[in-house]
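Dear colleague,

Thank you for sharing your sequence with our group. We've completed the structure prediction you requested, and as agreed, I am returning the results in plain text so they can be pasted directly into your records. Please verify that the sequence below matches your submission; if there's any discrepancy, let me know and we will rerun it promptly.
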Amino acid sequence: MAMMGLPLMAGCAARAVPPPVARPACGVANLGQLGTSSIPVAVSDRKSLLSVAQALDSAASQVNPDSQPFAFAVRFEHPLLARNGKVPGFVMKGSFDGPCAASAYLALGWGYARGESDRAYAANLPFDPPRDCSAKATAVPSIEAVYTPPSPEPAADHPALRGWSIDFPQIGEVLKKNRAWFRDGVEALEVTTAHRLRLDRSRSVGCVRTLYDRSRGHRRLDAIDDSRPVIELIEAGRPSKRANLAGYCTAGHYLVLDAATGATVERGRYRRCESFAAERI
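Please find the predicted C-alpha cells below.
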C-alpha cells in the first residue's frame, strides 16, 4: 500500500512517485469545481476508506510529487448503520497541498461518477471559499468586493495527516456501542487532524452554518495535540425543533474518534442551518 505524507499505517512501504505531469496554473480563473480533469486510480478495495484514500494519495503525487494530504471527507449514498454491518456506496474528497501553495489546495474526488470509480476528478480549490451562495441575495458595497482574490492560508493551518489506521470494521464496532447515539446512521465522516477539524468548525461554508454542543464528561477537542489524527462521524440529520426564520435547520449527534486507536475523543450534538436571508459582504 502507498503512504500518505508519512506512514498511514505502520509497516507501509513508501509510495512510488511517478513522473510529474504538467502542473495547473494558479490564477483565480483556474480554481474550478471537481470534474475539470481526471486521473486514473487503482482502488484495491472499494469498501475500504484506507484503500480509497491511498489511491487518491497516489494520484495526487502525479500532480505534485511533494503533495501531502490533510483531510479526507466522505459522504454516504445511504446512512451507514450499526445494525447490518454493510458499507453503503460513498464518495470521498481528498484535500492535498497543491501547486498553488497558500492560496489553494488540490482536491481529488472519487466515486462521483457511477461506473467510473477507476478515476479521480481533480481541481484546485481556494482555501478561502466565496462567502456567498446562489440561495442568498447579497448586498455588495463595492465592485472590489466581487474580485477580491482568495485569502492565503498558512501551512500550519493544514498540517499533514499522519498515523490514520482505523477503517470500517473499527468504525462499525464503535457504532454498535453507540446505537442510540446513531439511530439514524452516519451520513458523513471526515478524517483530518485535530487542528484542521477545529479550524473547519469555526467556518461557515456558503449558506451553511454548523454549531456544536459538546456533551459533559468527555474530553474537549481543543485539549488534544494539534497533529493528532481524528475521525468525525456525523449522524444523519433530522429536522430541528428550533426553527430558523432565515432558513432550514437539521440536528443530530456527532462523535470524534482517535484515527489511530478508535478511542472516543469527543461526543455531542450538532445543529446545521442553511440560511436564505440576505447579508452584506
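Summary note from our side: Residues 28-275 form one domain.

Kind regards,
the structure core
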